[in-house]
Write a structure and sequence with these properties.
heterodimer; A: 4 helices; 0% strand; B: alpha+beta; Glycosyltransferase; 21 helices; 19% strand; flat; transmembrane (chain A); membrane (chain A); DAD/Ost2 (chain A)
Chain lengths: 116, 742
Amino acid sequence: MGRSSSTKDAQALFHSLRSAYAATPVNLKIIDLYVGFAVFTALIQVVYMAIVGSFPFNSFLSGVLSCVGTAVLAVCLRIQVNKENKEFKDLPPERAFADFVLCNLVLHLVIMNFLG
Amino acid sequence: MAIDGNLHYFLLLLLTPLLVVRHFCEDFTEKRNTTQTKTNFSHISRMARSLAGFLALFLFVLICGAASLFQPISDSHRSAALELFTPTHGSFKSLEETYEALRTFEVLGIGKKPDVTATACRSISETLGLLTSTPKDLFYALKANSIVKCKINEKTSEGIITRLNTAVNGASSLLDFYYSIGGLVLIKDQTSKADVYLTDAEGVFRSVKAFSQSDGRWRYSSNNPESSAFAAGIALETLAGIVSLASSEMDQSLIITLKNDISKLFDSIEKYDDGALYFDDKLVDGHEHQGPLSTTSSVVRGLTAFAAVTAGSVNLPGDKILGLAKFFLGIGVPGDAKDFFNQIDSLACLESNRVSIPLILSLPSTELSLTKKDSLKVRVNTVLGSNAPPLTVKLVGAFSSGSKDASLVESQYEMQELKFDAETGVHILSSLPKSIDVGSYTFVFEIVLHESEHEKVYVTGNQTKVPIFVTGLIKIENAEITVLDGDLGSIETQKKLDLAGQNVVSLSANHLQKLRISFQLTTPRGRAFKPHQALLKLRHESKIEHIFVVGNSGKQFEILLNFLGLVEKFFYLSGRYDIELAVGDAVMENSLLRAIGHIELDLPEPPEKAPRPPPQPVDPYSRYGPKAEITHIFRAPEKHPPKELSLAFLGLTILPLLGFLVGVLRLGVNLKNFPSKAIPATFAILFHVGIGAVLLLYVLFWLKLDLFQTLKLLGFLGVFLVLVGHRILSHLAAASAKVKSA
């Protein structure tokens, strides 16, 4: 009894979450997808390392950090672009995007240097 | 040389206890090798080396400063001559070389010389026939011909005489005169015609004399200010030629001035410590500079040629001629053909010169054995080894090399005349003076010519000092080995030792006892003998060695080992010790290194703080052996996963990208916001191209560029990107602001 109700609750919760998320603007959804893409790529590399070993360790680190760094930067971009977020109300999204691009370029310069 | 032999002699005896040296006068370096192989106590030799160096130097100065031995030309020169002068393809390179070779063979009296007569004759007649031959060519051709003696036809020789006469008249330098006049002298001897003479001999003489300097040296030409002794020799030879070519008697005053010049030249002669005299030109004049050998040789040639043609004697002290002879003999056998020729030619000039003929005293052996009753043999020869006139050799003194001042031969009674053996040509002293015992000595000989006329012709040097080594069997007597009781000194065991035989003794002792070894050494003359080495060695089973010097008082040699005092030195090691005794000296014919036997030592247990015995080197020679090979160890390569797995994961990493793209498509993303106007659209495209370019640059950075190249390019790209990005993004911002406000 309790179990079915909890399943139902969970279903209800999931449903409401989904409907709430559907209201999110498309550009934020794109960023979310991008973050997911980056995190999954990092995960695959971690799994590879767990199976094979960490031999070219700097290559592994640069691969994972590239993904994680990109994901973090994308999250930052999402925070700034979000209209609901009052804190960055005055900041134009174009400015945030420029920051995102610049940070990504600097990050990847370092990553490439470290790749070996 | 004898000097090297002596030096080596002392090194050898200090390094090796057991040796009998037979030949001293051999090459020093060769002997050194034998020293190393003969060394028995290698570590003693290390100890002794510094001492040896000092002693050797000391003795070297004592002996060789005073005396040295010169040997006349012998068969070693003859065999060397045949090796040095070998014709290639039946002839020598030039006529000059042909002359030098033939002259050397002639002087040394070598019969089995290579036959080059035919080729030499051909080349001589070719040179003489050519009109383009210089006086120098003619000179050497005629010189060679003076030995080969080929026929020169009358017409050719007449032509040569005319040409050489013209050359004499046109000569301006010393060498011009030398070659042309030398040529004339040679052709005068070689043709039947007697009308070869100089018309104006005195004039030519004066013009050559004009090159002379006040110090007896000469210049090559009037415009060359430098003078040399080498040129002086050439000038003397030239002037001798002029005198012999003169048609009438020369002005005597010219000859007298020249004789003065010669004595001035001999004032500048230089001297070695062993009495050898030589000329050397100090000036450094590039290619024309000659060494001491050719300079001295040139002077000797000039001097003897001049003395041969002038009446009256050239007043030179005989010692100087003897000194020159010693110089030429002292260089041994030169390895260079030119030097060899100079040596032999000069000695031949000295052999029959009119100034004074040097006589050289030499000894077949400078090592005499008292035991074998060797007689002292002395040979007196001319420089080329031919017999001397009748003479007597006297031994006037003998000095022990230790004490320089007291002669061991007292001049009144013991001044000994050596008996001459006409058959062998050797002067023999059958028995050495009584005062001569084993050891090294310097003997002083005096040569007395029988006929007083000979004294003007020959020069012997007043006294000749010769280093002599007298060896003998040393008597070893009363050799005993004794074990004594410590407190009372009473004898526990006593054994006779036969050091000449092979018997061994075995003893035993404890730390409270003493070991005594004693023996007496007597020379053949019955005197006490102190060898350079008298050493006792005890060697433990573990190869640890202890060496003791056996001291002496007079004849008696004795060593007393008190084991109580030695336990610490012996590292408390009990057990069997082998005993070895070494008695050695260079003049001791029966030097010995004998294993006497062994002693069983019973020493107390070591206390806690006792010194440990040092580790023995495994083999002292292994230090110089090859080192262990160095192998380079490389890091083992990391384990690589199978290629398929890596490729599979590469594929997997693409999956999230695909998912991202699919997700984007499902969201219905479009590019409607992309600027539609031309200018912003261009900037937008440029912006994306710029980002792409930076990413491409990163890929290149990864693949091949270095950081500096990358940053340089990135600087340009960055500026471009900032400009373009600013334009497009501000355009977009303005557009969205317009939408918001509207």
